């Protein structure tokens, strides 16, 4: 049903990076202490984790895949952007039933083309220190890749797409949100999944605690020896489930698959993931959707009802169309729940109803 091509895309990334304020972790005891520090209610203590910022320019390469429907007219290109613990497994899980769990497959079936990529430090994309990989450099990567795709590069023989939608999950949504705040003409549409702008209920901090974070390279040297100690991961499948899944709306075998194919997150991702800098309303004028699982823990402290639009609607007041969906029967890892397909339909129905 689709034809795909893989790319390795060289980029020069200039960003203003926050500097990690503690010594680099040597042992799991250091990580345990870091969890104590980030969860401290005293902002002066939690604030000690960052000691300034620096402008950095670095070269990197990003591995990307572009897929388009094998037949029929192609008029649309959608971009996907990365989230925390999984790689290709999240948008297009190789070993799962694609008719249920693959957003890419669904989008292709609706006539969209899809460009998606591995985040920095994951898969074939460049390896950088976990003390460096953070929101600022991700925004730069996303913005540059979007501009390249809009020029018709890295999209097979598609040519210049006439419409571009940016789709992210979790950290990827933060990057999309900040990218269109800063560059208002970057996209025609944005879809922010596993995300919220209601700061009252953001809970990235306790997420680190619930995940029982461990140093990835120590947990599985076979998989992650190349990563420095700034890359962290969930302690086991149950802590993964505590954050990403909601009973009874998932298949435990899928949770096991998620744990087996998970990818670590950098310590600076944890610290910058929910750093929403822009104030409402954004100047961005395209179409916008926030769709998060009703039971999302990191962004809604377990209940997204009535908070995604407050103040989401205020941020997106100037847009052509805005919709907030608290999607029932799922936890933070929306795409891995039994009803994932319904959320894919919500997304493409909303886009096509608004000319995308
Ligand atoms: C792209 O890379 C993936 C992962 O390495 C591989 O499974 C797939 O076959 C490649 N696709 C093409 C079209 O080369
Ligand atoms: C760092 O970059 C920002 C813009 O991103 C600029 O305003 C600032 O002056 C730069 N700082 C230094 C020390 O170059
Ligand atoms: C979050 O949503 C609740 C419920 O709608 C609202 O009372 C609260 O003011 C919102 N928080 C922010 C920071 O807007």
TrEMBL record:
<dbReference type="InterPro" id="IPR029058">
    <property type="entry name" value="AB_hydrolase_fold"/>
</dbReference>
<protein>
    <recommendedName>
        <fullName>AB hydrolase-1 domain-containing protein</fullName>
    </recommendedName>
</protein>
